[in-house]
Amino acid sequence: MNYEGHVLGGILTYPIAVLIASLLKSYLNLPFELTFVSMTLGYGFYVLGSDLPDMDHPDALIHKGAKPIVSVGIGSFVFLRARDFSNFTEFWWANLTIAWLISAVVAFGAWYGFSAVMPKHRGIIHTLTFALIYGLIVFLGVRYGLSLKFGEALFISLAAFSGYTLHLISDRHIKLI
Ligand SMILES: [Zn+2]
Fold it and tell me: Tell me, what's the pLDDT at 83?
């Protein structure tokens, strides 16, 4: 299935994820907190997850879209470090430019590195293990990054995992590892 099919599938099937979470909360007392914030963020991570596994395909839109974000992220991180070691000249403006020059070269390399280190299409990225890892990263991000309540983070994490799993189901490619 292509980009649009996966994303539209995610946009349309989100109510099922909400239903499952509501039933688990109602009958098994799982502590999901279905607030407006948790459900809208959950929607975002569900739909993102519904296309995310195709990051392992160099021609996929999500792969192309992730490249500049990864490059800028790595470049900025390098700048953070490079600026402490860059007393190359006595001029602050030259040092600043040199620090960004080093960062830009690393970011340039990261652009190609991202594609080079990505596992083969429908390999390890297209597995339930990665769906779990995605759910876990999202949980840690919203719980400790955005300081949401435990029950909200738990629901958003389930939504992220479900969206990713939906992608594997529509690919008919459901593997544990
Ligand atoms: Zn796929």
Answer: 76
Q: pTM to 2 decimals? A: 0.87
CA 41 to centroid of ligand 1, rounded, Å: 23
Ligand 1 centre to CA of 174 (Å) is 10
State whether 79 and 39 are in the same domain. no
Is the pLDDT score of 40 beyond 90?
yes
Q: Do 125 and 53 fall into the same domain?
A: yes
- In the structure encoding, which two tokens stand for residue 85, read together? 């070691």
Residue 104's domain comprises 66-117
Q: How far is C-alpha 130 from the chain's CA centre?
A: 11
Shared-domain flag, residues 166 and 143: yes
User: How confident is the model at residue 81, as a pLDDT?
Assistant: 86
